[in-house]
Amino acid sequence: MTTESRPHIVVGIEGTSASEAALQWAVREAGLRGCPLTVVHAWSFDPVRDAGKTNEHAERRASVCMIGAEVATAMRHVGVTPEVIERSVHGSPARTLVKESGGAELLVLGRGHRSGMIDVLRHSVSADCVRHASCPVVIIPDAWAPAHSHGPVAASG
To answer: pLDDT of 19-62, one tens digit each?
Structure first.
C-alpha cells in the first residue's frame, strides 16, 4: 500500500526555525497517530537568476541533504521515530505541498512572525495551502516550543 492510499501526515520544510518547529510537531503527531510522515522540501532553480552561483544538481543535492539533517535532528529532539518518507521536489512550494498532501490527514507548515493578514495579502505559502489543500492544514508559529507538547496552533480544513 502506498503512503498516498493510507493515513499519513505531510510537512513542508525550508530550513528555517519555523519549519523546524513544524517538523518537530509533525514528527510527534505522526508518532501519536502511528502513521507515516512525508517530509517535503520544494526547491527551484532558475538558470538566469542562479547562473554562476549554483546549478540544478547542486540545488537538488542541497535539498536532499537538508531534509535528511532536519529529520534526524527533529527525531532526536522529539524522541519519536515514525516512518518517514523524504521528498525533495523541484517546483513552487505552495503547489508542491498542495499536491503532495492530496489524500493526507494533515498538512503541517511553519509560519514566521508575519501577521495572518500580511500572509493573505502577499499570498504566502501557508495562506495558499490553506486555500487550496484538500486536507486540514496545521500552521505552527515560529515561537512554538516543543516542551508545550501540542501548544496553540492554527488549523484549517
So the answer is: 999 999 999 999 999 999 999 999 987 766 766 677 888 889 99
Query: What's the first-to-final CA gap in the chain, in angstroms?
Result: 25
Q: What is the value of pTM for the model shown?
A: 0.82
Which among 120, 119, 91, 88 is positioned nearest to 13, based on CA atoms?
A: 88
Task: Please give the DSSP secondary-structure letter assigned to residue 137.
Answer: E
DSSP-derived secondary structure for 42-77: EE---TTTTTTT--HHHHHHHHHHHHHHHHHHHHHH
User: What digits encode the pLDDT tens for the residues 86-106?
Assistant: 999 999 999 999 999 999 999
Check if CATH label 3.60.21.10 holds for domain 12-156. no
